[in-house]
Amino acid sequence: MSAFLALAWRDLRLALRQGSDVVLVIVFFVLAAVLYPFALGPEPQLLGRIAAGVVWVTALLAALLSLERLFLADHQDGALDLLALAPQPLWATVLAKVAAHWLTTGVPLLAAAPVVAVMLGAPASSIPPLVAALALGTPSLSLIGAIGAALALGARRGGVLIPLLVLPLYIPVLIFGAAAVEAAVSGADAYPPLAILGALLLAALPLAPLAAAAGLRNALR
pLDDT (tens digit, 9 = 90+) per residue, 6-36? Predict the structure, then answer.
């Protein structure tokens, strides 16, 4: 556990020291959401109806931006080889790096999502389920993204390959995340979609680090 926390804290400090990745995620998230009113028109009813989907799609795309650097820097400077030889299991190393990734991307997206939703005219009743859905869904995005980052490690144009690998796996999270908000807006119970998001997170939590660890071992051969 001490090695896990030390590695997560190391990655968190490196990300915050650079700062560019965190700022890039937030700026992309806000700018991409702002483009929708220009494309669809300023009609409040239309924007309010699609606000949940817009927030989820832009958050998903913003989370993709920093996935390439999840393992790349450690792979280039040889630190990943040392981590693979450490007594700590490689899946625990992956989990620590995913935790740091979520803290530097998922948490800022959680903070910015209500502002973007209100800006798009989303009803007030949709904000709590939107935040709850993102709190359950964004960790799954980081976990699933780690699989794609590990499989694309060392490949030519890995930044292009990662979205092709992970976007199909992101679809269930996107569907049930938007469904939770739509259910709350329509007066239905938002609990079933949120429960499914929780189940997806519980499934990804043990499986994704193991799959990513296998991808890293293959890249290190």
Answer: 777 877 787 777 766 778 888 899 898 888 8
CA distance 186 to 200: 24
The mean pLDDT value for 192-220 works out to 91
CA 67 – CA 63 distance, rounded (Å):
7
Q: What are phi and psi of 88, to 5 degrees?
A: -65, 135
- Please name which of 122, 127, 123, 141 lies closest in space to residue 197, comparing C-alpha atoms: 141
Q: What is the pLDDT of residue 170?
A: 92
pLDDT surpasses 80 at 190: yes
Cβ–Cβ under 8 Å, residues 158 and 152: yes
Q: Please state the pTM of the whole predicted model.
A: 0.88
DSSP string for the chain? -HHHHHHHHHHHHHHHHH-HHHHHHHHHHHHHHHHHHHHH-S-HHHHHHHHHHHHHHHHHHHHHHTSTTTTHHHHHTTHHHHHHHSSS-HHHHHHHHHHHHHHHHHHHHHHHHHHHHHHTT--GGGHHHHHHHHHHHHHHHHHHHHHHHHHTTTSTTHHHHHHHHHHHHHHHHHHHHHHHHHHHHTTS--HHHHHHHHHHHHHHHHHHHHHHHHHHHHHH-
